[in-house]
Amino acid sequence: MRASGAEGKPRARWPDYAAIWRWHFYAGLFCIPFICWLAITGSIYIFRPDIEAWLDRPYESLHLAGLAAAPSAEARAAIAAIPGSAFTLYQPPATPTGAGQVVVTKGAIPYRVYINPGTLKPMKVQRNDRRPMDIVAHLHGQLLLGNRGSMIVELAACWAIVMILTGLYLWWPRGQRGLGGVLYPRLRRRGRLFWRDLHGVTGFWVSLIALFLLLSGLPWSSNWGNYLSWTRNLWSVTAGAPDWPVGTTNQPAAKRNLGGKTPAPPQGGMPGMTTAEMAAMVQVAAPDGLPDDQPRVDLHVLDTVVPLASRLHVPQPVWITPPPAGFRDWTIASQIQDRPLRVTYTIDPATGAVTGERTFAQENIVDKVVNVVIATHEGHLFGRLNQAVLVLTAISLLTVSISAVVMWWRRRPSGMLGAPAPGARPRFSLWLTASIILLAVLLPLFGVSLIIVLILDRVVLPRLPAWRLWLGRQPRKA
To answer: For 202-317, where are the E strands, in sequence order?
Structure first.
């Protein structure tokens, strides 16, 4: 259906196919490098437990001549290995003959020390924030640029959502007979038709999972994550610090005393750390020789708490942390990737009695949903099948991206960007305006970037004829 223009000529609807295609093209041009990056780094990260178990394998099957040393002795040996450091957490070994892993902090830098329980000698010392999988995590979510990188990734995710939605519109069959090129690619075809089918069909099948991954990654981002945190804190039932990392901003520590007290927020922390991780980074067990204002605890408590963690069957990996200054109870917390299985206990150091317990079932509905989503995003909610689906999704996204680049490069005119030619003149209807506003409210960074794009298009580009020509925005001749 066409509306009549001022001169009686039929006027095309807008946004028409050409307009949707242009939005899809420009969104893809910006997003494809990030989509490929996220697909590759994300595929590595979902195997974090497997990779870390492989890296720690030399320290998990030790030949001990006698009895293993007490955990408190391992903690003291780790402190001695980094002179001037303070104890922050103890991670029990995964096997009975494994090395205890002790994290100590010197200044603002955390170190992980692997202690041989038979000789109490350090077997390995490394920066805790520079472990391979931590680097992969920061590459994936922050591009190793901190909050700036997090905002870039978030912006790419927002426009990737636009790219997928416009791509689904372009994929929708119009008067086509048969399912070839719609639900399955016609692989025997050659040239542009082959690449178009590969791009369109693969994009259709992967679109819903890709949308889920993009949306489920937003709670980690510095901008949208804080937006979510602000929103959830509007209600008392969800108020408090989330137990997932938000950009590089230090969040207040999670409730360590499950009887009701909340410790003061830690001052240290590394990019991308969870609140439990940041709470563990508090310097809480200083060795002799440090200033008197440095809080101290009795490391002998480890000898009681570590065996208790085994008896409670806390899912590994387990972090055992002492209380911050002004608090009494120690904490046993599971850090398993499948977040619904996590459990946290608080322990009376004097008696070894459990004083509090917090499980997934006790979380508020918002945190439950987000933690389930995160566990799925990281590939651990339903085991190997979850990982297989995500790896297949990553391969599909790489296929869609590569085929898009091939199609663009083949059709690109020499000396020009090769963007689709403009179609009908833009006219914003009520439903379109409402849809854009809704998307801008749900994705604020998208809204801001859209305003910038519109200013560039309407104010800056008209003054740059060479750029307009390169972008294919020259006005049509009468």
So the answer is: none
pLDDT in tens, 70-90: 999 999 999 999 999 999 999
**pLDDT category of residue 181 using cuts at 50, 70 and 90:** confident
For 284-384, strand residue ranges (E) read: 318-321, 330-334, 343-347, 354-359
Tell the residue number behind the tokens 């595929």, with chain if given. Answer: 43
- Count Cβ atoms within 10 A of the Cβ of residue 16 and give its class: 0-12 exposed, 13-18 middle, 19 or more buried: middle
What does the block give as tokens for 217? 């990654």
Q: Which of 375, 333, 344, 353 is nearest to 91 (CA)?
A: 333
Q: Whole-number mean pLDDT of the chain? A: 84
**Both tokens of residue 87?**
């104890």
Half-sphere exposure of 476 (CA within 13 A, CB side): 6
Q: How far apart are CA 386 and CA 380, in angstroms?
A: 6
Q: Check if the beta carbon of residue 68 is closer than 8 Å to that of residue 302.
A: no
Q: Is 32 left (phi over 0), alpha (psi -120 to 50) or beta?
A: alpha
- Which tokens go with 240? 């408090």
How many Cα neighbours within 13 Å face the side chain of 160? Answer: 31
Q: Give me the sheet containing 330-334, strands edge to edge.
A: 122-127, 109-115, 100-106, 86-91, 318-321, 330-334, 343-347, 354-359
Instruction: Give me the DSSP letters along 22-53.
Output: HHHHHHHHHHHHHHHHHHHHHHHHTTHHHHHH
Of 13, 24, 151, 388, give the one whose Cα is nearest residue 143: 151
What type of residue sits at position 315? P
What is the rounded CA–CA span in Å between residue 361 and residue 322?
A: 25
Angle subtended at Cα 283 by Cα 279 and Cα 284, rounded to the nearest 5 degrees: 90
- CB 224, CB 154: distance < 8 Å: yes
Cβ contacts of 51 within 8 Å, gap of 6 or more: 44, 132, 133
- Predicted confidence at residue 65, as pLDDT, reads 79
Q: Which helix (H) or strand (E) holds 110?
A: strand 109-115
Predicted confidence at residue 174, as pLDDT, reads 80
Q: How far is it, in rounded angstroms, from Cα 201 to Cα 37?
A: 22
Q: Which residues contact 141 (CB under 8 A, 6 or more apart)?
A: 149, 150, 153, 217, 220, 221, 272
